[in-house]
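Q: Could you predict the 3D structure of Serine carboxypeptidase-like 19?
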Amino acid sequence: HPSPLLRLVPGLLLLLLISRPAAASASTVVTHLPGFDGPLPFHLETGYVGVEEETGAELFYYLVESERSPGADPVLLWLTGGPRCSGFSAFAFEVGPVKFVLAPYDGGLPQLVYNPLSWTKMASIIFLDSPVSSGFSYARDPKGCDDVGDYSSSLQVQRFLNKWFTDHPQYLSNPFYIGGDSYAGKVVPLIAQYVSEGIDKRQQPRINLKGYLVGNPMTDPKFDRNFQVQAAHGFGIISDQIYEAAMRNCKGDYINHVNQMCAEVLQTVKSLISEILDAHILYKKCVFSAPKPTNDATARKNLLEESIELNEAPGRPAIDCLTYGYYLSYFWMNNNMTRDALGVKQVKSQLCIARNIFQIIH
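A: Sure. Here are the predicted structure tokens for Serine carboxypeptidase-like 19:
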């Protein structure tokens, strides 16, 4: 089932200069954000944690402390989908403490306001840019961006957690959870397994893992896609007659066309689904703010070699579109004041590109 939100790797294309070895970590306490009126009403820390010596890979994070009782409330690691979507997507569009003011863009800095429905009202959340090349995460060696998959990125997140908790021992006794949505449904259980194995082996630091959670999780396409027909029927997108014809002719397999009648009814289903925004059927269907990325590694490599200009603004959607907030975030995240406030390392050389600006999950 698609995620209800258009995922965003906030675009920044940060080709970053490494000023310290990958094993090191650096953090910044952020009290003000550009476009936010006054001091932040929550504690925000950002930083880098090295996760791989060989490639110089470092993951960027945003920590928002619980506004209720940070010494006792749960700590949650949150991963966004994609893959290669920034944790900023959740920070500003899902469960985090800020949101964009949806006003017509006039060329200035988009404005932010406090989100009173943030999960950080009762939990401390680490929003993580993972895998490498998501958001502000990077590697000195481009291989650190390309040669990373679900298993290797999960191991990197485990290393991140070990180092992060070593640097933040005050949270070790808090209940800890690992969460994520959409594509993160593939890696959250892996990360939880790796952390759990470390606990069983009595590795230090002793993380107080209590469980994991996933929202709209992607699992395996052969399972996820095979339930699109049932979902379309349940949402009223296809009629009872079309659904019954699909069940009768496809015999439970809605991916492989077992006969001509099955192929025809599935084409009808596909045509009807194409009329709505499949990421959220109640929202207006709008053009995307950037080309849909590809999950194919070869195609991604070709995109990189073609030197796509990620610093060019995406197409401007209508203000009542789901994507308009993400359009605004492009300008906010690419502003030098924003990067300075967040403690992002300066751009000096082409090391590793956060290639995907906007992502929609399938």
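Q: Anything worth pointing out?
A: The domain at 7-219+284-359 is CATH 3.40.50.1820 (Rossmann fold).
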